[in-house]
């Protein structure tokens, strides 16, 4: 009796395997750009959503990475990490593409991806604990968003009475704080930090970005002006403050820079869940929504009121602009770190600038400047 035929691979998997083969064979070398979502869509005649899933799959397999100002490229030693193709779906991820390629590079935990809301967590029967409640609540928020979370939905997921979770957690607000603390504790830093303050700040920013990518709801928790007093979050603060400390910056500047970096991560990550909410509200994927904006965009470009915008858009060519949050995040870190470098350099050489009121010019550290007004060094104390 003939065996059952092998299940056909879905289009995204076949395309990912083909690009992976090119990487393995050396046709695409480490650091070389891989096809963009638009090129994949054209070359294989698939939708942009499918093309986005291709690049997400390759990122999950460690074959490609996103670099600022470059795009998606073959990761270092990517061919060595190539895994054989397996039929079946890619791990569940939260798609947040606006408008073309912005799909989560971090899957929802497997235990969450394997169950539907309302089902008891596999292997988690027995005594109800705070840890089980937090884990179940996190799975709900990861899959459905923070708005779907309630004490009742957690109880239903765990298969217990509706009031049972209240024996361990006071209410939803306290539960969300416990979830956030657990999420921030998922990643730790090396015992020996990098010698370079810049590398240390980069490591901290990318670590926070990974956590927010894994839990899109996390950026919705708390307000920047009312910091979350969470031990695990303070660990990330300690890492960043340690990078900035000891470089001649005054304490206020050190704290300002720490808050700036955290708000940078949070400010981009906040759009992860907002995109998911927009799709749920409108019933439109990002591609469908953008397609409907075509006439409005054409009217703006051709109206003559915004000539620079029209010129920049026109210079993009047929590939258009792929709004990739990962690339945007990595790109934005560079200017921020450059600014910190300038402040540290100024603190190391704090010669004040004196404004010459007679000549309208300025001199640095010139005691003969007469009526000049000494300005404090960049980032210095008042």
From TrEMBL:
DNA-binding region(s) from the entry: 150-169
InterPro entries the record matches: Homeodomain-like_sf (IPR009057), HTH-type_TetR-like_transc_reg (IPR050109), HTH_TetR (IPR001647), Repressor_TetR_C (IPR004111), Tet_transcr_reg_TetR-rel_C_sf (IPR036271), Tscrpt_reg_HTH_GntR (IPR000524), WH-like_DNA-bd_sf (IPR036388), WH_DNA-bd_sf (IPR036390)
GO molecular function per UniProt: DNA-binding transcription factor activity; transcription cis-regulatory region binding
Keywords, ordered alphabetically: DNA-binding, Transcription, Transcription regulation
One GO-annotated biological process of the protein: negative regulation of DNA-templated transcription
Keyword Metal-binding attributed: no
Highest taxon of source: Bacteria
HTH tetR-type domain residues: 127-187
Domain spans labelled HTH gntR-type: 9-77
Region (Disordered): 355-382
Keyword Transcription: yes
PANTHER family: HTH-TYPE TRANSCRIPTIONAL REGULATOR RUTR, TRANSCRIPTIONAL REGULATORY PROTEIN
Name the UniProt record assigns to this protein: TetR/AcrR family transcriptional regulator C-terminal domain-containing protein
Organism: Streptomyces sp. Y1
